Amino acid sequence: MTLPFLATATANPAAQIRAWWTSSVAWVDTHWLQIGIAIGAGLLIYFALSLIRGFALKKAQSAPGQFTLTDIVGRVIHKTKSLVLAIVAIRLVAASANPPVVILQIIKFVFTVAGVLQVAIWAREIVLGLIQRRAAEGHNETLNNAMGIIRLLISIALFAVAAIVILDNMGVNVTGLIAGLGIGGIAIGLAAQGIFSDLFASLSIIFDRPFRVGEAIKYDNSVATVERIGLKSTHLRSVNGELLVISNTNLLSKEITNYAHLERRRVQFAIGVIYQTTPAMLRALPALLKAQVEAEGHDFIRSSFIGFGASSLDFELVADIPSADYNEVIAARTAIGIRVFEEMTNAGYDFAYPTQTTFTAAPDGTMILPYAESVTMKTPKPAQS
């Protein structure tokens, strides 16, 4: 929409203004009744909209809880300006008063500007409210600290779009402006690529929540506890006590194992018995191992023969420990291992360990002992006189 006083250039602006004034006075003299009715209707619409806003705001503010959806709606309603309500009322009744084209276009232009700015304010409050609601759910200190930057970035983006829409309605060619903003944005993005990359990675961690502060995770080859999630980096405390500071981008580029949400942990034992074990004892071993796991109150998964080792017959024992506490899992694993050793020893099983047997042959190939045969020397009796 192009306003006449912007689109029309005259050699005599004073004459143009006098012409507008004359037409406006003639309009008031001719349509005074319609103008009065329109003013009355506009006032009624304004008061009705104000009552609706007040009622909705009171309803939203009376709802319990902060940063809930109702609270966000209340914030949006609170940001609705009274001036905008008045402009909306004027726009609704303007056509019924048959105003001159100039006045009607001015009303439409003001309504467009007010509406675009109001929508930008609403959008900002909704986005910020949803972000703060997410931060409140996780009690996230990092997101709370970043709200100033986030508010600034969102406000710049939304009001830049609003300015472009307003300029377009004024008849300004915004194609070059949009292209310039695009090129400028690309230049800024390239210059601050690392900063923005870590910032968005931080927001990704905050919203997606692959882990939280205090949770134990495995990153790459390190097992550590999350101490702090920052805008640039995340601090991890390894099991050995070292502080690991990793950029958020690098942290999300590799596989992360989160141990905090385990309802149970699986433990495995590799058990080897000697080759002299009888087949009957080998067949009975899986049942014996199962009984030891169940006697400790844990979940037996499987026990089976897995192969012929270099110096042992190899079995495996797999069990689940119904606990997320790593210390409890280690204690349970120890208890199972000791019980298995005790019961297998009592049942006559011998545990294998790396051994070798050496066989020695004579030059003709005959097998001989690997050591010289001992000879008992007889002591001579003393001579008798």
Structure characterization notes:
The chain has about 375 residues and is α+β, with helices and mostly antiparallel strands. The protein has 3 domains: about 5-190, no CATH class; about 205-260, SH3 type barrels; about 265-345, Alpha-Beta Plaits (2-Layer Sandwich). It is built from 12 helices and 10 strands. The chain has helices at about 5, 15-30, 30-60, 70-80, 80-95, 100-140, 140-170, 175-190, 195-210, 250, 280-295, 325-345; strands spanning about 215-220, 220-230, 235-240, 245, 255-260, 265-275, 300-310, 315-320, 360, 365-370. It has a 5-stranded antiparallel beta sheet with strand order 4-3-2-1-5. Strands 6-8-7 form a 3-stranded antiparallel beta sheet. Strands 9-10 form a two-stranded antiparallel ribbon. A hairpin with a 5-residue loop joins strand 9 (about 360) and strand 10. Helix 3 runs antiparallel to helix 4 (about 70-80), helix 5 (about 80-95) runs antiparallel to helix 6 (about 100-140) and helix 6 runs antiparallel to helix 7 (about 140-170). The longest helix is centred in the first third of the chain and has 38 residues, at about 100-140. Mean pLDDT is about 80; it is low at about 5-10 and about 375-380.
